[in-house]
Automatic annotation (TrEMBL):
Residues 134-144 have a biased composition (Basic and acidic residues). One of its GO terms (biological process) is DNA recombination. Keywords: DNA recombination. It comes from Acidobacterium capsulatum (strain ATCC 51196 / DSM 11244 / BCRC 80197 / JCM 7670 / NBRC 15755 / NCIMB 13165 / 161). Residues 134-155 are annotated as: Disordered. The lineage of its organism: Bacteria, Pseudomonadati, Acidobacteriota, Terriglobia, Terriglobales. Residues 145-155 have a biased composition (Basic residues). This is Conserved domain protein. GO terms for molecular function: DNA binding.
Length: 155
């Protein structure tokens, strides 16, 4: 059994679905058809309509997108936001190897601060300090340019 990691509203929604589902056991599937078997096409037409409306129905290689593509998007976004591969694998019910092999293309440059953490010369980024430094640098640059202009006029 995998643990649900989601906002409380999602858990509440799933509990309401489970209450009307034919498969109501703790290990039972949440999304089933009217006979209680796993729903294979639930929301398929709704998702297709939404993707058509957004002009996103076909992927880059011309293959129609399915609801499964959201799994890939979810994993990619979570990794880009810095969720560790072990937690993501557990939450998605997948192996670390699968996550690494399918989503290893996620750009580590975005998280260079995490990659470099602990190395000599590495500093913990401080957004407020960085903004202040950038403003101070810009002010100094502007001041230097104005001084150079004064020297040229005086000379």
């Amino acid at each position: 059994m995998s643990n649900l990691v989601a906002p409380k509203s999602v858990g509440d929604y799933l509990e309401r679905i489970r209450a009307i589902s034919k498969a109501t056991g703790p290990e039972g599937r949440v999304f089933t058809n009217f006979t209680g078997k796993p729903a294979k096409s639930l929301y398929t037409s709704l998702i297709a309509d939404l993707l058509n409306e957004a002009n996103l129905r076909e992927g880059t290689q011309g293959v129609p997108r399915s609801t499964y593509c959201f799994r890939h998007t979810y994993a990619t976004l979570r990794l880009q936001e810095g969720v560790d591969v072990y937690s993501l694998a557990e939450q998605m019910g997948a192996s670390v190897h699968m996550i690494e092999s399918h989503y290893g293309h996620v750009n580590t440059i975005k998280h260079a601060d995490r990659v470099l953490q602990g190395m000599a010369g590495w500093e913990l980024p401080h957004p407020d300090v960085d903004v202040t430094r950038a403003k101070a640098s810009k002010a100094a640059e502007t001041h230097d340019k104005s001084k150079r202009g004064q020297h040229r006029r005086a000379g």
